[in-house]
Automatic annotation (TrEMBL):
It catalyses: epoxyqueuosine(34) in tRNA + AH2 = queuosine(34) in tRNA + A + H2O. Its main location: cytoplasm. It is an enzyme of class 1 (oxidoreductase). Cob(II)alamin binds at R79, D156, L180, L191, S256, C281, D282. This is Epoxyqueuosine reductase. Gene3D superfamilies: 3.30.70.20. It comes from the Bacteria. NCBIfam families: tRNA epoxyqueuosine(34) reductase QueG. Its EC number is 1.17.99.6.
Length: 420
């Protein structure tokens, strides 16, 4: 179902009668129930006014913080204007779906430099298709109860400002790391949206109240009041200093960006700071005190597959491209491609303590790899050679990220013992 061009004011005018308002409230109640039946962890409804976020978006793009994600600049302010993206839209239904896996092993893997750390959202099946299917099912249920209804689902699939919309829908608040946080659920969850052309009553709670008050201000980041308070733990723990100021991330310095979104060479000065993180980074969430309230995901598809939650770097580096494609079918990791996968692992091997088996594996692969991967393998070999004749203490000093990782793992073990 796609929303056709519509006059928003005309739609709203049709439902000003008390009986119509009651019917839409009843429908909103049903939508809440249907969403829970479909397995969503939470749901909220918002209006589409994101005008207060436009200056923030413009400045972020002007600073080049989007890196080579050209589509963000190409779509420009459409990201903040839902009715331009999908004409006829008057409300957005935002949904949350928890994904934290059982036995996440955060600290155990981060401390073991021979193991590969993969962002925990990517251990199981790709969430895009699963959530989109559920959103489509929700849309069908609404259509069965509402004549002339049109909708369009989104799950990271278009220029949508999902976090501001989720704030307005009462699902939480955007933290200083820019991710959405909920006091009762932490931040380990996915977001999805259903753009609709009916004026459902909007969700009212503490989160939506704050978000709507901010929408009345000229500069949203300057006047933010939320449950982050004075905490800056996420800013201080970021290995690459990617959170350049509260509520602003320079993607070009973010490990998630250059291990997932960018197919280019990883900046050499940032490589030692990656540690063993080969696909994404969870550090800013791991240090967040609100994640002690995080819920374990109930979707089996999001649990770890192929031992990706506890696997050695050398094992992954031994994969052929065919094995990579076959093994990771249905995984979000597959979309970065084999070359980026090998590039990332090569850097992590360079960051690992010296081991003859690592040098052998790197050397064996270098002539078989693309020019991009070769350059990263050579860097890794140089790092291994530097460590070969060092005593342990000197080798640790070479690891620029060692002390920060130790601080993080101690914090995880103390604050998140269930998930350590």
């Amino acid at each position: 179902m796609t929303i056709p061009p519509t006059n928003n004011e005309a739609i709203i005018e049709k439902v000003k009668s008390p009986s119509a308002i009651v019917k839409f409230q009843d429908l909103a109640n049903k939508i809440q129930r249907w969403a829970k039946e479909l397995g969503f962890s939470d749901i909220g409804i918002s209006d589409i006014d994101l005008s207060a976020h436009e200056p923030v978006l413009e400045r972020w793009l002007a600073n080049g913080y989007h890196g080579n994600m050209d589509y963000m600049a190409r779509h420009g302010l459409m990201r903040a204007r839902p009715a331009e993206l999908v004409p006829g839209t008057v409300r957005v239904i935002s949904v949350r779906l928890d994904y934290l896996p059982h036995n996440a092993k955060f600290s155990n893997i981060l401390k073991d430099k021979q193991k590969a750390y993969i962002s925990r959202y990517a251990l199981g099946r790709d969430y895009h298709k699963l959530m989109r299917k559920r959103l489509q099912q929700l849309g069908k249920k609404i259509a069965d109860h509402c004549p002339d209804f049109n909708c369009r689902p989104f799950v990271d699939s278009a220029p949508v400002m999902e976090r501001p919309l989720a704030e307005k829908a009462g699902l939480g608040w955007a933290g200083k790391h820019t991710l959405l946080i909920n006091k009762e659920a932490g931040s380990w969850f996915f977001l999805g949206e259903l753009f609709v052309d009916i004026p459902l009553p909007i969700t009212v709670n503490e989160y939506s109240d704050r978000a709507n008050k901010l929408s009345e201000t000229v500069e949203v980041t300057a006047s933010k009041i939320n449950d982050c308070g004075s905490c800056v733990a996420c800013i201080k723990i970021c290995p690459t200093n990617a959170i350049v100021e509260p509520y602003t991330v320079d993607a070009r310095r973010c490990i998630s960006y250059f291990t997932i979104e960018s197919a280019e060479a990883i900046p050499e000065e940032l490589r030692p700071l990656m540690g063993n993180r080969i696909y994404g980074c969870d550090d800013c969430q791991l240090i967040c005190p609100w994640n002690k309230y995080a819920k374990i995901g109930l979707v089996d598809d999001f649990q770890a597959r192929n031992n990706l939650d506890d696997v050695s770097l050398l094992e992954l580096f031994s994969w052929s491209e065919e094995y990579f494609l076959n093994t990771l079918e249905g995984s979000p990791i597959r979309r970065i491609g084999f070359q980026s996968w090998m590039r990332n692992i090569a850097v992590a091997l360079g960051n690992a303590p010296y081991k003859e088996a690592i040098v052998t594996a790197l050397t064996d692969k270098i002539t078989l790899s693309s020019e991009l991967v070769q350059e990263h393998i050579q860097w890794a070999l140089n790092q291994q050679n530097l460590k070969m004749n060092m005593v342990d203490k000197a080798a640790i000093e070479l690891d620029k990220n060692h002390r920060l990782t130790l601080r993080l793992t101690r914090s995880i073990e103390k604050g998140l013992p269930r998930d350590a």
